[in-house]
Write a structure and sequence with these properties.
The structure is a single chain. By secondary structure, this protein is mostly helical. The protein has helices spanning about 5-20, 45-55, 70-75, 85-100, 120-140, 140-145, 150-155, 205, 230-245, 265-285, 310-315, and strands at about 30, 40-45. Strands 1-2 form a two-stranded antiparallel sheet. The longest helix is centred in the last third of the chain and has 21 residues, at about 265-285. It is globular, with a radius of gyration of 24 Å.
Length: about 325
């Protein structure tokens, strides 16, 4: 065997080994999600589902909701958001938030030891605003979260900072000249499924209000000027949706006509509201906290951490596989 042949055999062995450990092996479970004959099928790999189930279990509630007794505002000082909640329920929620967000750090992650009323720590001021955000999502965005709702645990999962947040991405450092014409893409992007699609599909759509559009509505050019660049950005966002929910395109779209709403699944409508919910949360609740967070908690462009679909979903089609944690904490879903 010649030297070149040995090299080729070695390369073949490396490729075979890579395929062995990266490809998903049968059996693959399939679920028909829509019209027959148009590929509207979701593929599920049982070992992946088992792994997702293990990390997407909702913790049990700390007892039952307490609906009677003096209010928190009459017992504690400087209660601004939950002052009308019974003090027993208020304490139960505070204990729950500690286990959801800072189980290692404890109460002093947000509160000054010996002076719970003080607002000295930025974490307390942020937490107060986050409780308001959860209440807003549960009461104003039922088109997306329905009656399931969200809690702090939906995103945090026992960590002070959620595992899946994002900052405005300045892109890699450029050498200058013609090398600077990357147009926001052409580097490997985790946000876009390790493709060379735009590496920041979040700022244009989940913070700014740009059109998510790739197809012209007319056969010939008119006043509809959808560019290839806009198409790339849209595809990058769709790749994020797929990763965030652990599904493929036909979870929402009919492969016969991706643009047709009439032929899409109901989940596309839910996703439509979800995009606007995320944009609302980022602009109304997170961006305004820029002056509250310390410098080390800001991104490379000085912005705060923001949310996207993966922040809540974390790889499954429904956060925590649809566990309705918010039902056990009625104060997180205030009535209009």
């Amino acid at each position: 065997m010649t030297f070149i042949m040995r090299i080729l055999v070695g390369l073949a062995a490396v490729v075979a080994a890579a395929m062995l450990f990266t490809f998903q092996h049968p059996p693959i479970d399939t679920v028909q999600r829509g019209f027959r004959g148009v590929g509207m099928v979701q593929n599920f790999y049982p070992p992946t589902i088992e792994a997702q189930l293990a990390v997407n279990r909702a913790p049990p509630p700390l007892g039952e909701p307490i609906t009677a007794g003096p209010t928190a505002g009459t017992i504690y000082q400087n209660v601004q958001v939950l002052k009308d909640v019974p003090v027993g329920e208020f304490t139960r929620l505070m204990a729950s938030i500690t286990t959801w967000v800072a189980p290692t750090q404890g109460c002093n992650y947000c509160h000054v030891a010996g002076n719970l009323a003080a607002d000295d720590l930025y974490t307390k001021r942020v937490a107060r605003r986050m409780i308001q955000m959860v209440q807003h999502v549960n009461s104003q965005w039922t088109q997306h979260v329905a009656a399931t709702g969200v809690t702090c645990y939906t995103c945090h999962r026992g960590q002070p900072v959620p595992a899946f947040v994002w900052f405005n991405n300045p892109g890699p450092a450029q050498a200058g000249g013609f090398a600077e014409t990357g147009m926001g893409k052409n580097v490997v992007s985790k946000a876009a499924g390790l493709s060379s699609l735009p590496y920041d599909p979040f700022t244009p759509f989940l913070e700014q209000d740009n059109n998510i559009r790739i197809a012209s509505q007319t056969a010939l050019p008119t006043n509809d000027n959808q560019s290839i660049k806009q198409t790339d950005w849209t595809y990058a966002l769709m790749m994020h949706f797929s990763q965030a929910l652990g599904v493929n395109c036909t979870y929402c779209h009919n492969s016969r006509s991706f643009t047709s709403w009439e032929q899409s699944t109901p989940q596309r409508v839910t996703a439509w509201y979800g995009i606007r919910m995320v944009r609302d949360v980022n602009n109304a609740y997170l961006d305004p906290l820029k002056d509250v967070f310390p410098h080390e908690r800001l991104g490379p462009l000085g912005d705060v951490a923001k949310v996207n679909c993966q922040t809540c979903h974390q790889g499954v089609y429904k956060p925590l596989f649809g566990a309705a944690m918010a039902r056990n904490f009625p104060e997180l879903t205030p009535k209009p």
